[in-house]
Amino acid sequence: QLSGKWFLVGMASRCSYLAEHSHQLEATTVTMTVLDGQSLAISTFRKLDRMCWEIRQHYLPAQAPGRFLLKGHRKSSKVDVVVGEADPSSFIILYYQKGRSISVKLYGRNSLVSDAVVDKFEQRARAVGLSEDVTYYFPTYGFCDSADEFHVLD
């Protein structure tokens, strides 16, 4: 159900980097591929310094359906990923928790989603203590579809 192309529509996070660079947000797409029926291969495409980059990640299945684990290089850098709400034909809301820090991301099958979906996203962000002042929306134009082999981060 989650397989295919998604557009990053919005993100609620207290990340200081995001706050300082919110004026430089780039259009971002994600391709999700379900592997072995459980884990997810994630390819994120975005521009950095006007070049298209692909960032590859692997979400491992966790204890329950709709829960994943993103392992970092250090033990302390693991991220719990939880599907908050999804309509696989139109949107998905994901929670990312690292330690005590939480972020909420809204992805759409299109770069624009309905106001009702935006309202759901904002309600879920507020429910975990993230207000409008730490909610960011991404551009709806200028997407990357691919990156050459020199611009891939695993």
From TrEMBL:
Keyword Disulfide bond set for record: yes
What is one process in the GO biological process aspect for this record? complement activation
Annotated Lipocalin/cytosolic fatty-acid binding domain residues: 3-137
Predominant subcellular localization, coarse grouping:
secreted
Protein's UniProt keywords contain Disulfide bond: yes
Give the highest taxon in the source lineage: Eukaryota
According to the UniProt entry, its GO molecular function terms are: complement binding
Give the subcellular location: Secreted
Keywords carried by this UniProt record: Disulfide bond, Secreted, Signal
Q: What Pfam families does the record tag this protein with? A: Lipocalin
Q: Which GO terms describe its cellular component?
A: blood microparticle; extracellular exosome; membrane attack complex
Annotated PANTHER family: COMPLEMENT COMPONENT C8 GAMMA CHAIN
Protein's name according to its UniProt entry: CO8G protein
Gene name of the record: C8g
